[in-house]
């Protein structure tokens, strides 16, 4: 090998050897430097700088203009893996094309998000695909395959799955712990990640901010125990931003940052995203950990090797062989058409009833006069992980284009107000000031650092004032918009200006609240927490409440009045309601209710009162509970924020150019009372998601109507070795061409443990012309019928009958068949042989799972040390009899045993053991025999790890 071509640059050599060669050429300091997100260049080796992390959830984000596809939850509503794969291809092509012009654009893309949508109040629900692990896995696999590309050696981009693991709450997300029992871990959360990793299209994962079972996800033992066993590839683990510091600063899990950084590295974190572009802090911590002996050189080398493996896959060291090096596809006609196709496929028709005994309200009749009203009617909203729009289409734009402007009337429905000060003057928006470019148009590695404008004059006061558009987005969270369309915002100098194109940013500076003060209101700026005041040099946010101005809200026009006027003039009314993705439910903020904001409730009621031919179109990042609208209105639709072609796509669906065929990717509940607590992650015990929910949803998982009808026939199902073969014929029995989404569910008829009401095991979206039929066949792995058997610590498919259902949703079953699975039913718990891991309970009340040690393992503790927590273990086999019980326990308190919840067995007092990780083994005499249910009560500040029996 010549000096000019070292082995690591020789593509004829196996990649593993090339990685080892380059690693060996790096100095110890250079290796450590590579562990920060922004790895510096090594000029002496010709190695370029590299950064992990390029947001690409539904288009290239944060780097300026790019094609914007529907939100991820909207892609979930398509139920179409092929479409999602093509979107992944387009996004990765644009990433390559953008990088050719701006090397800040990264190829290690942080997408997709595969956290399951177990609770619709989760603020980041817009980022996930579905509440079902199988559907999520299928779409994630498709997207990552598109991002990766088809070349056997080189990757177009290197996808990283977010966020490992069980992350569905934003409130106190860096300190709260999700209690995830083994059944939920294996049957639910792990499955969302596993399919894409096994498919070979995943370069890495990102741990979540939260803790699971008392241990930070950045120390998750499951990275080693599960993730890295699913593939032979090196998996790169990239920390979430600031999370390494959280281990000490907010979580207090370690005393020093050196200990925390060392523990994360040993657990499997390979790239530390912390302190922005400044790597010095992380590098110093790693050096300190190495000097203290907390880590060894082998720990550093292991992480560097994983990063280098990704860089080799991206073709960095083989530019002449990289098949994607000349990729320049950006904003192509194909990408624009794909964005529209995705937006069309994401539309879900929830209800479409006849009006006055005639035809269904939708599609709209040719020549109809349409009133388009509502707060989202002329909006094309973006979210935190969107790129900047190259093209923009609102519902109003789309309908005017499709039906003609003379057939469309518009009323936004905002409340138009003036704000009068205590002196009698009114807030005035100064004239002038050029409209700024869209926020983020210039691109930013960290858009949270984009500052507000200070080049415009602040608001003033005069006798007349300016008319402001007031919107209450829910819970009293307000935005105020000037007559020229700019939102009132606050910059670093705390002046109030009409300067923002849209609400946005990490800390939204365009949000306000009213605080009642006597007969008037104080105006609170949410971003700073300060109060709006009026001074001689303009309107600003004061540091103290005493300086706050007292405002009187003068109504110029109520939004519902404008809506009612427009509705009365039209043949059909379309009320477009929903959310702004930067407000009332987003990253860092969970929603507090499923209810539609009161202002928007008033709008649809006003429209319906004026015109019964009213449809409610919900454009939102999440479900709403709208039972009264669902009962009163003839038609309802839902779509996520649909990206750049949202308006055109929606208009085509409403016109009947495209039949709606989206399906709900999560359950729409009827009320807040149907939901568990945000920190209840136990879908089995908490009876959550369509799998276990015992109530009646407003709209079920998988629901969605079309403009035609479908018949299902010829269902067959049989067990053939290790698969279940299912066949069915689907026929379009209507007069309109449309896609149908055939869904296959399975139900265990006589399970020994609680099982789902029905679980999705296969689906297919297929286009059918009027009168057309297609015979479908599915091969379902027999293992898909199984569950995690906590009694024996393994995946188990119980013998017995299973019902195979096929239909149009989880509730709309069109046919069913029975299959019989042969085998031996698992026996009772072998407690004499293996004892009991406390976490392997069947049922519990008042307990939570915590960390056995800082490294691995689980224990169980009472939620309330002053109360009682109970664990139940079904069908424990005590054989011919046991006479002794022993517990492995830490802390202090008491443990009480009984059989079947009635017969006392023993009670063990636990004196203080010396710390939460200091375990002692304590025993007591018992008498038990045969098979019985064991109940264990826990009291005090103790952690139960294991129970053993002898006799």
Give a summary of the structure in a few sentences.
The chain is an alpha+beta fold.
Textual characterization of the structure:
By secondary structure, the chain is of the alpha+beta class. It is built from 19 helices and 46 strands. The strands form 13 sheets. Strands 38, 39, 42, 43, 44, 45 and 46 form a 7-stranded antiparallel sheet that branches. The chain has a 6-stranded mixed sheet with strand order 11-28-27-26-12-13, with helices on both faces. The protein has a 6-stranded antiparallel sheet with strand order 18-17-14-25-22-21. The longest helix has 21 residues, at 81-101. It is globular, with a radius of gyration of 30 Å. 55% of the residues are buried.
Provide mean pLDDT, rounded.
Answer: 96
Please give the count of helices. 19
Helical fraction: 10-25%
The secondary-structure class comes to alpha+beta
What radius of gyration results from the CA coordinates? 30 Å
- Span between N and C termini? 70 Å
List how many beta strands DSSP finds: 46
What overall geometry do the principal axes of the alpha carbons give? globular
Portion in beta strands: 25-35%
- Specify the biggest β-sheet: 7 strands, antiparallel
Unreliable stretches covering 5 or more consecutive residues:
none
Q: Which key features would you list for this structure?
A:
about 950 residues; alpha+beta; single chain; 7-stranded antiparallel sheet; 6-stranded mixed sheet; 19 helices
SSE layout and pairing:
Elements: H1 15-25, H2 28-33, E1 38-39, E2 50-51, E3 54-55, H3 72-78, H4 81-101, E4 108-113, H5 133-148, E5 158-164, E6 177-178, H6 182-198, E7 204-207, E8 211-212, E9 215-216, H7 222-225, E10 236-237, H8 243-249, H9 257-267, H10 280-291, H11 297-313, H12 333-345, E11 348-352, E12 370-373, H13 395-403, E13 408-411, E14 415-420, E15 426-428, E16 460-462, E17 468-472, E18 478-481, E19 487-490, E20 496-500, E21 512-517, E22 520-525, E23 531-535, E24 538-542, E25 550-557, H14 559-568, E26 572-578, H15 598-610, E27 614-619, H16 627-632, E28 635-639, H17 646-655, H18 689-692, E29 710-720, E30 723-732, E31 738-748, E32 759-768, E33 773-781, E34 787-789, E35 794-796, E36 800-807, E37 813-821, H19 831-834, E38 836-837, E39 843-845, E40 847-851, E41 858-862, E42 868-877, E43 882-899, E44 903-910, E45 919-928, E46 931-950
Parallel strand pairs: 3-4, 4-5, 5-7, 6-8, 7-10, 12-13, 12-26, 26-27, 27-28
Antiparallel strand pairs: 1-2, 8-9, 11-28, 14-17, 14-25, 15-16, 17-18, 19-20, 21-22, 22-25, 23-24, 29-30, 30-33, 31-32, 31-36, 34-35, 36-37, 38-46, 39-42, 40-41, 42-46, 43-44, 43-45, 43-46
